[in-house]
Structure formats: structure tokens, C-alpha cells
Amino acid sequence: MTDDTQHPDVDGFDLDGDTLREECGVFGVFGHDDAAALTALGMHALQHRGQEAAGVVSYDGGRFHAERRIGLVGDSFSKASTIERLAGRTAVGHVRYSTTGGTILRNVQPMFAELATGGLAIAHNGNITNGLALRRDLIADGAICQSTSDTEVILHLVAHSRKPRIVERYIDALRALEGAYSLIALTNKKMIGARDPHGIRPLVLGELNGAYILASETCALDIIGARFVREIENGEVVVITEDGIESLRPFPRMPERLCIFEYVYFSRPDSVLAGRSVYDVRRQMGMQLAEETPVAADVVIPVPDSGVPAAIGYAQASGIPFELGIIRNHYVGRTFIEPTQQIRALGVKLKHNANRAVVTGKRIVLVDDSVVRGTTSVKIVQMMRDAGAREVHLRVASPPITHPDFYGIDTPDKRSLLAATHSLDEMRDFIGADSLAFVSIDGLYRSVGFDARDSSCPQFTDHCFTGDYPTTLTDQLDQAGKGGQQLSLLAEVG
Fold it and tell me: Which pTM value belongs to this model?
């Protein structure tokens, strides 16, 4: 992003950098003859949570098997030969995005190690906010790290524990962690699920013909026909064996603080989170947005695909017709070849195109889920004007993002967040819209079914909007004390 006083050269800007990315999704099966195939299907349903790498580790009663690949699940785990190599009735899978450390095979999960207690594979959704500090202490104590992932730190902590049983060692390791984690671990006899004491990232339990399933979202249960049993609670550790499920509570109980961005953007619309339909919550966000920020217009247009439910809600509440004024090309991905500046200059048009029939001559309300750097919004607004829109009003179904995330969302440095450096009027001028408005924090909470002004209201993790971080940020505080910038725990460490 350019400096705050200049308009960015959006024609040459990497638009993929103007999005929020969940770093990963996890899925595990215990006790099914088709464990690896079911895991691949579950990972496919979670592909939205990570599109750069995928991996599966299985156990067949005698040995562990691992397949890790760069790329989409369907590109690597659709062949029968790959699934056949993942023998066994238990398996754990992972899909991930990389951050500034880059996508390299040694960072692809699940992570696996042979320990004194036997083999252990771990798949992790979240971010350990003291991961760098722990890593440095482990290396100083003689540990040899093979990756730059904070998940490997958990393996080392388990290995260093002096507890006699693997579950005790595992919990011993969890006690050292700060930050967010939803974990699935696999041993030769057990599958272990865990959520951090705040429950920042989701994890659910399902059942299929006597087999148990752990997954990041309920949509992954749906794809394999599994029955939703319940959510793993914050601070809970579940141990699944041939004898059934044991629930452990090794941490002091505290209120759950689920990341509210799961509702805003990350979870799939067809998932159910904390008993609420994600689709319905997003539609309510749009309705709330219409009530708070009305505007005279002829048509409501979503920014696809994540803005669709909120745009439907906005149209329903405002009475303004809903139309698909932007058509998305689903076959252009992050790996699309851009060999020349002329092709790169097409920018967002590679992925989106205006539907002129519903745009020309109209006053339009564009509805999006969030604004990060704002560069994509610049492109979309200009696209609408080029298609003949008379007026373009941008409405955003989340509050302004003013703070970076440290719990598993790949957000830019605070200085690159548009709302952190610009007033609302400056943001409007930057984007080029006739008007710009965001849903309020109170409106966001009401959309989820709560009143933020009620002292009994559950407190979500809403730090991207408020700066209220629920845990200590050890690595970030250490780096700030050294005059550094925000670090990614998946970045290369010297």
C-alpha cells in the first residue's frame, strides 16, 4: 500500500493482499474403514479456510502414513492411489494458508513426530501468540526445528514433558501456550481434540456409523453425512478411543470468546456456529446495516461471494431490489499466470465483471463483508461507474477493521489497514464511492442475537474492531520492545 496521502496504483496492486485469510481448517476421523477418504471429503468442505496446502496423516494399526501437498485438496487427494496409501481406520487432515513465511512443504500440516510415547500427528487452526518465545527457548535447550510453524512447537513441548501418559504430556504442553488453538492430535490409539480456554477458533464433534469426527465446521460433517453431536467447548480436551469419548477440563473455566469474524467472513454460510446459522447471521447483518445506514437507491448489489447474504438482508430490510450486478469468475485462482503488465493491469476484472444490464443508469448499493486495505473496493466501485452506474454507495456488513489479528487470521500490519489510518470521509474519498457506511459494533452483536450494551451479553473476540485482545501477545510485545513490526509466527525465524 502506498502512503496515506496518495491514491494507490491499484492497477498494479496485488489484489490478493486486500483480503482476510483464515490460515487453516482441521478434520479428523476415528474408527471408520474409509477414514482417509472421509478426511479428504471433509477437507474439501473446509477448502475456504485454506487453499494453499493440504495434508493427511493416517494410522493403520501398525504404522503412520502421511501425504502432504501444495495446492488444493482436489488436486492432490482425488486419486484412489493417494487414498490407498493412507491406510487405516483413523486419520487427521489439514488445509492451510501461508502468511509471510511462504508456502513450503515442510510447513504443511499435520505435523508428525516419533516421540518416546509413540507417533504423534497434530493439525492446528489458530495462532500461538508466544510461539516465537517458546521456539527460541526450545532451540536454546537443544531442540531441532524442521519447520517455521508454531504447530511444531507443540510437538516439542509434548516431547519435553516428563508426564508419564501421552494425554498428560499433551495437556502439559497446552498449559504453556498463549493465543488461539483448535487442535486435532492422532496417536496410535487415540484422537484428541482441544480448544483454547477462550474458544477463539471453532471445533465440532460429529458421529458417522459409530465413528467419531472432529472438524472446524459443521459443513464438513454434512458432506460425509455425519450427525452433528455438539461443539467442543472452550478449554475442553476430548480423548477419543475404542472405548468412547472422555471429556477433560484441565484449565480454569472462563467465558467463551469465539472470534466474531467467523460469522462475518470465515465460516461457510451453510455451517452452524454456536447454535446459529452463519447464513442467517450474515443476512441479519445486512438487515441491521440497512436500518442503521439507509440510502435512496434503485438496486442492491453484493460483492461476491461473501457479500451475498448481507446484501439479501439489506434488500429485504430496505425494500430495494436485490440483483447480481457483479458476476464472479470462479475459475480464476491465486495461481493464475500473469506474464505481462498488460495482463496484470486487468486486476480485479480477472475475477469479477459488471453485469451492465442491472447497473447502467442505476443508483446502486454495493454490500461487502469487510474492508481491509480498500484497494479492491476502489476497483469494484470504479467497475460500477464504468458500467454506467449513476451513484455508488458502499455498505459494509462489519465495523471498520482498525487492529491486526494475531489468532490465525492473516491481516496486514496496522499501518496498512485503511480504517486505522483514515477517517470515514477519507475512506470514502479513497474508495471513490458517493457514500460509505459500516455496521456498528452494537449492530453486529444484535445480528448474532445479543445486545452489546447488556452486561450479561456474551463477549466475542472482536479485537479487529476494538483492539480488545483476549490473551497476552508475548511475541508481539517482545518485538515491539525491539522496535520491530508485527510478526507472523509462520515467518522465517533467524
Answer: 0.89
